[in-house]
Amino acid sequence: MSENSTSPVVRFRPAVGRERTYDFAPLPCPPLHTPLAAALKARLTPATGDGHTLTAASADTYFGTIRRFLAFLSMQDKPLTCLGDVHPDHLYTFRDIEGATRTAAGIGRELAQLCRLLQDAPYGSLHPAVWDLVKAPRKVIGPQPPRNAVPVYSHREYTALLQAARTDAARIISRLTASERLLAAFRAAPHTLNEEDRDTARLLDVMDRTGRIPHVEGQRKQDTARLLFLTPADAAPLFILALALGHLRVTETAELPAHHTVTRDGSVVVRLDEHMDRKRGTTPVRWELRGEGHDPLRSAGDFYLLLHRLTQRSRHFSGTPQLWNLWTGRSANLSGHAPLSRHSASPLLHTWAHRHHLTEDDGRPLTVQMHRLRATARAQAQH
Fold first, then answer.
1. Fewer beta carbons within 10 angstroms: which end of the chain, N or C?
2. Buried b (16+ CB within 10 A) or exposed e, 186-205
3. What phi and psi values does residue 273 have, to the nearest 5 degrees?
4. Which residues pair with 270 in a beta bridge?
C-alpha cells in the first residue's frame, strides 16, 4: 500500500478481549501513515508469535502515542512528506510540549514507547540522526526527577488489612472445599446424600462439566457461580495476600502465569514474561514451599499453589494461560470465565476495604493502594 493511497488499518487480536482495529484514516500527516502503521504492526506481531502477548491496553497505548505524535507534527510550519523528514529537533520539541501538561514519568513513558515504535519502522525510512537517537531513548527522555518514596501503612493498618484478608480467604477456601467434597460424594455415591444436597450437587456437576451457570429460581447468577468458582467478590482478599506474600509488582502479580515448576528442593518456580518485566527478563521467580502442616495464607509458594487450584476450573473454561481466572459473567469466548485485570482489581479493593470498615490511624476510611501495600510488605520483610 503506497503512502498516498487509502490509509492503512492495523488489526490486533490480544489473548484476552475483543480484536482491536487501528484505523489511520482520521489521523493527520497522511504521508507518515504507512511507515508508522508498519511500525505498529511490527510492534504487535512478534508479541502474538512468541508467547509474549501484549495486552489490548498496551496496544491501545502505542496507537495513542502515534496519534499524539502525528497531531504534533501536523502543526509544524513545513509539511512532512515522509518519515525521513522527522528530525531530532521534532522529538525534543514534542517532549517539551507534551511535558508542559504531563508528569515527568508520564512523558518519559510516552517517549520510550515512541522510540520503540520508531525502531520498528521500515528499514531506511528514518533520518539517520533519528535512528541513532531512538536506539538510546534516554537521550530523548532526558534526566528524570527522583521518585518520591511510596508511603507505607502503619503496623496497625497493615495488620488489620492482612487479618481481614486472611479471614475472608479462609472462608473462600472452606466454601469451595465443601463444594468439592459434595461433588465428589455425588459422583461416587449419590444415594448417600439427602435431597437438598443432591439438588445442589447436580448444579455443581453441570457447572463443573460445562462452565455454565444454571438458572436457580430466586438466586442471583453470581451466587450460584460462587459455589464452585472464584468470582470478583473473592478477588480482593486474595489479591491483597498475593501482593503481601509475593513482593512482586502489581502488574507482575496480576499477570502471573499458571505454568510453573515444583523443584526437588521444595520450591515453586514461575517465569514472568519478558514483555511484563523487561528488567527481570525471563529470570525465574522462586518461592519456598513449606508443605503440609503450614498455613498456605502465610507463605508465597504455598499460596501460589493454592491459587492455582482455586482458579483451575475458570482457567480451563477461559482458555487463557494467566493464573488469575475467575467467573465474571463476561468473557471473550462467551464462557463467562476470564482473567482478572489489574485495572478491575483496584475498585474491588476499595469496595472490600469499605465493607470491612477498615480505618487509617487517624480514623478516616482506609484506602487500599496496591503500590503502597507492596511497599509495606517489602519494608516488613526487611525487619
1. C
2. beeeeeeeeeeeeebbebbb
3. -65, 150
4. 285
150-164 confidence digits (pLDDT tens): 889 999 999 999 999
Q: Distance between CA 182 and CA 374 in Å, rounded? A: 37
pTM of the model: 0.65
Cα(334)–Cα(361) distance, rounded to whole angstroms? 45
Distance in angstroms between the alpha carbons of the first and the last residue of the chain: 61
Question: How many CA atoms lie less than 13 Å away from 242 in the CB half-sphere?
Answer: 25
CB 153 within 8 A of CB 373: yes
pLDDT, tens only, 216-251: 999 999 999 999 999 999 999 999 999 999 999 888
Whether residue 326 contacts residue 229, with contact meaning beta carbons closer than 8 Å, is answered with yes
3-state helix, strand, coil in the chain (%, to 5): 55, 10, 40
Higher pLDDT, 351 or 39: 39
Q: How do beta strands 9-12 and 20-23 pair?
A: antiparallel
Q: How confident is the model at residue 47 (pLDDT cuts 50, 70, 90)?
A: very low
C-alpha cell at 28: 493527520
User: Per the structure block, which three cell numbers stand in for 291?
Assistant: 508443605
The sign of the torsion formed by the CA atoms of 78, 80, 85, 89 equals: positive
- pLDDT score of 377: 92
The Cα 85–Cα 91 span in angstroms is 12
Which amino acid, one-letter code, is at 107? I
CB 24 within 8 A of CB 36: yes
| CA–CA separation, 42 and 65 (whole Å) | 15
CB proximity list for 21: less than 8 A, separation 6 or greater:
9, 10, 11
Burial 339-365 (b: 16+ CB within 10 A, else e): bbbbeebbebbbebbeebebeeeeeee
Which is higher by pLDDT, 276 or 128?
A: 128
Share the mean pLDDT of the chain.
88
Mean pLDDT over 99-116 rounds to 84
